[in-house]
Amino acid sequence: MTNRTLALRKIASTPVELTELGFGASVIGNLYRVTPAQDAEAAVDAAWEAGIRYFDTAPHYGLGLSERRLGAALRHRPRDAYMVSSKVGRLLVPNEDRRGVDSEGFVVRDDLRRQWDFSRDGVLRSIEETLERTGLDRLDVVYLHDPDDHWRQAAEEAMPALAELRDQGVIGAIGAGMNQSAMLARFLRETAADLVMLAGRYTLLDQSALDDVLPAARELGKSVVAVGVFNSGLLSRDRPAAGMKYDYQDAPSDLVARALAIAEVCEAYGTTLPAAAIAFPLAHPSIINVTLGMRTPDQVTRNTELHARRIHGGLWEELRDRGLIRPDVPAESDGRRSPGCL
Q: Count of domains in the chain?
């Protein structure tokens, strides 16, 4: 068993440290297609061997399958050696209208269904059920999961419940995870959240988080975990092409062209588009982690190799000068980060 770990970063104002690269366990919950159980376990094992010590899951992912598989794969590891996050807001309840297969993108039986619940009781029940599915004794980080349409209950009931658990030492850190950035800024400014999980809004193609959540995090000294950094695939290959996905839809031609232009600049600086896509958010002073979905050991190997590539700080300046990223991308991005920049 290796003791090597990737670089650690602390969630501000908490004792919790995350490796710079995290293992996103949604795909081992059979997202879009079946992942054999042995492949899921092998992917977690490969992540461990690569030095990843932060693992993210949720009840939503495969109607509990991701949590069960992740917990089983980590069970023989020393508990103090890794961090696990899960999420609340979707309870899993018996499904009386079964059609055979889940309708929300996971290839699993639909014996259960998701029920929105950001009440205090719902939060406590969700955490208890996650601990049962994973077999873990505790969760290190808990996020409110996609509370877009539930601000009031999430902010007034769920977050105070999580804060109480954190203050009792039951949870290490608390936050919210969403595909939008504006409400995440509200969670940082108006609630007891320590961090947020930002999906797809601070990438090489979309820096809209510079308008709200990232300034809030810097001002308040709070932290951000970045996910969706490939924008559903458009930034995942060295040379983007028509037919690739952007934010779960077919990518518009203008975005494909811009991604290709960014890729060409990356090549001129001796790197690749996906390597730069991972390094870019980590160069922001408030972003402490990039978490990527990893279905197989080969994907783990590729992602950890991409993360390890050194990026010349001049790349970001060149992209700004060419108008390919926003001019207000922080100057700290230049040359900041180990191992990401030169």
A: 1
